[in-house]
């Protein structure tokens, strides 16, 4: 989809009749013309700038068509396992033999090597296996899966960047490139400070809800009528926050003077802030915090998010038509 945004002609190959399984996922909306079947918002949200081609890879004629297509295009992106791609004669070695300039990008759960290479994977299972689920949620409750799909998104961005780099490489070398992208790898890379804490110091971060394991205060606080996220990334920001809430003495308290001290004394500073934030509405706090030099933000639902004044200014949303009728 991102390549399509930049002008690529993207052809999505789907199974005849049923098509991409995500066409059936969740909330559906009817077509504007009233004749095509309703499609899921999930599917519509990630399939702009694409054309659909229905091919049955178990049909000899259709498979021949697909192999021919793979030999003519600039880039092939596939989610087949090694075994399935080899069975179809469309693994990277065979495909690139037929087209030496082909950019072949394989996107799978575990990659094309290793003991898990032929196992299926889903967003939720990869979140679980890579440690993301373990560290997400409240400390006194079971781990939770994120509502969105961080593994899918990070994997897509790695694949997108890799394809762009491969196209530049081909311009210089005249040769195609094989790209092996695994959701498992990408999510481990995305674990950032949580992964680094274990690798470098042997420390397992525990679940802390909306809070941050190494920065305080950096969490959601309940207000009189809602909630507000506060982030103070350094001591100066904490001093500004203390002034803005009318309690400058907090920044001078020897228990809270530095971030390290605030982390060590989390159980002392957070209850104090909880009581303070509960005394005013979210809007009142937000008005008081504007221009004070520390990050904050209300907890918005999607309606409030898309009504945010920054959305229109930044051109974040646009209308487009998904012309991807169900494959027949």
Write a brief structural summary.
The chain has 328 residues and is of the alpha/beta class. 41% of the residues lie in helices and 13% in strands. It starts with a helix and ends in a 14-residue tail after the last helix.
Task: Describe this entry's structure for a reader.
It is a single chain. This protein has about 325 residues and is α/β, with parallel strands linked by helices. Helix content is about 40%, strand content about 15%. It is built from 16 helices and ten strands. It has helices at about 1-5, 40-45, 60-70, 80-90, 90-100, 125-130, 150-175, 185-190, 190-200, 235-245, 250, 260-265, 265-275, 280-290, 300-305, 310-315; strands at about 10-15, 30, 40, 50-55, 75-80, 105-110, 175-180, 220, 225-230, 295-300. It has a three-stranded parallel beta sheet, with helices on both faces. It has a three-stranded antiparallel beta sheet with strand order 8-9-10, with helices on one face. A hairpin with a 4-residue loop joins β8 (about 220) and β9 (about 225-230). The radius of gyration is 25 Å and the shape is elongated. The two termini are about 20 Å apart. The model has no long low-confidence stretch (mean pLDDT about 90).
